[in-house]
TrEMBL record:
This is F-box domain-containing protein. Residues 22-55 form the F-box domain. It comes from Eleusine coracana subsp. coracana. The gene is gb07635. InterPro entries: AT5G49610-like_b-prop, F-box-like_dom_sf, F-box_dom. Coiled coil: none annotated. It holds the Pfam family Beta-prop_AT5G49610-like. Residues 111-343 form the F-box protein AT5G49610-like beta-propeller domain. SUPFAM superfamilies: F-box domain.
Length: 380
């Protein structure tokens, strides 16, 4: 008898990209920056649905750990106020341009960015604004007079509590305000969970000339750090809410001419990035065999070779390369040179020019995980 149908056989395994688990593992390994995720989400509805799935997004954060630097904010009069590092700036660019406040100047001034949020202030520090560019959430905060009394020498930081760091969108946050006056340093913490400020704490300073710089602070382990003018760093320990001073290397003034930024070292501890002409020096605070903390100079990066630009030797007393900012995880350095602002990744020795504006001095790098939707950026 003639066989009308071929014999049945076991089902063939699905191609790799048809298997949801294998596809998810592949997509997790894409670089988490705008171009990669946006292009992947445009392949088909199935890929777009997978990229927006909450379980995939949790896996994305766990796999990459360090959020990508999307760009930086700045207070320069040169528009736009947000400069994108890669891909399309999407909604961040338009939202930043629309930031206005009630008052004489109508301006919010960027203080810093951390854990996916931006901290802004009014001109007189009477008001703060915590803004999430991904979710558009905004929270206004009034700074008590006892915190800002009789001084304009203030700085501040925004951060998520240690229990939720790594996935801070929609979570509570803290704001730490520090100031110096009359040879003392002061600090006070605001909690969004309680909507209140804690008691003001203070510590003695070595001199009444010790003043905070305008550069953003750095979060290293369980402490915040800000540069002071007189060769030291102000430390605020989050756990016991205690203020202390950390001395800077002796080369701060004679060699680096204050062209330094405090941040996280390559080993994860307290570090410094400093510039000597066209050489980038990476310092780390380490403990020696006697248990004494000291500064240790690690790597030196020659920007002549790295940037491959026609850089000229500086005039006496000039600063040819200025450190404009550090990414919060210390993995990217923003430099201003004669032709514009560059971002440099010291670990892999790569760089990219972001803008030809030479009027921007200090930048506030912004890093966050997100998922593309159309031409906008949506929190992941």
């Amino acid at each position: 008898m003639t066989q009308r149908y071929p014999p049945t056989s076991p089902a063939s395994p699905a191609p790799p990209l048809e298997d949801e688990n294998i596809l998810a593992e592949i997509l997790l390994r894409l670089p988490p920056h705008p171009t990669s995720l946006y292009r992947a989400s445009r392949v088909c509805k199935r890929w777009r649905h997978l990229i927006r799935d909450p379980e995939f997004l949790r896996g994305l954060r766990a796999f990459h750990r360090t959020p990508p630097v999307l760009g930086f904010f700045h207070n320069s009069p040169c528009p736009p106020r947000f400069v994108c590092a890669e891909g399309s700036p999407g909604r961040i660019l338009h939202a930043a341009a629309a930031l206005r406040r009630d008052g004489e100047d109508g301006m919010w001034w960027f203080v810093e960015c951390r854990h996916g949020r931006s901290l802004l202030r009014g001109r007189d520090w009477a008001d703060l604004l915590v803004w999430d560019p991904m979710t558009a959430e905004r929270r206004g905060i009034s700074v008590p007079y006892r915190v800002r009394a009789a001084t304009f020498d203030l700085n501040a930081a925004v951060l998520c509590p240690s229990t939720v760091r790594g996935d801070c969108h929609y979570s509570p946050f803290d704001v730490v305000v520090v100031c110096t006056r009359q040879a003392r340093a002061f600090a006070c913490v605001y909690s969004s969970a309680t909507g209140s400020w804690c008691e003001v704490i203070s510590t003695q300073m070595p001199s009444s000339r010790c003043e905070l710089t305008e550069e953003p602070g750095a979060l290293v382990e369980d402490a915040l750090y800000w540069l002071l003018d007189e060769g030291s760093i102000l430390e605020f320990q989050l756990g016991n809410q205690r203020l202390a001073l950390v001395e800077l290397p002796s080369e701060t003034f004679s060699v680096y001419k204050r062209n330094i930024r405090v941040g996280r070292s390559e080993g994860g501890g307290l570090g410094l990035t400093a510039m000597k002409n066209f050489s980038m020096h990476l310092w780390a605070r380490e403990v020696d065999h006697l248990g004494t903390e000291k500064w240790v100079l690690g790597r030196e990066i020659d920007l002549y070779k790295l940037l491959a630009l026609p850089l000229t030797q500086p005039r006496v007393g000039s600063i040819p390369v200025w450190i404009s900012g550090l990414a919060e995880d210390g993995n990217a350095v923003f430099l201003r040179i004669m032709v514009g602002i560059f971002v440099v990744w010291p670990e892999i020795k790569k760089f990219k020019m972001l803008t030809n504006s030479v009027l921007i001095k200090t930048v506030d790098p912004y890093a966050s995980f997100y998922v593309p939707e159309g031409n906008s950026l949506v929190v992941s």
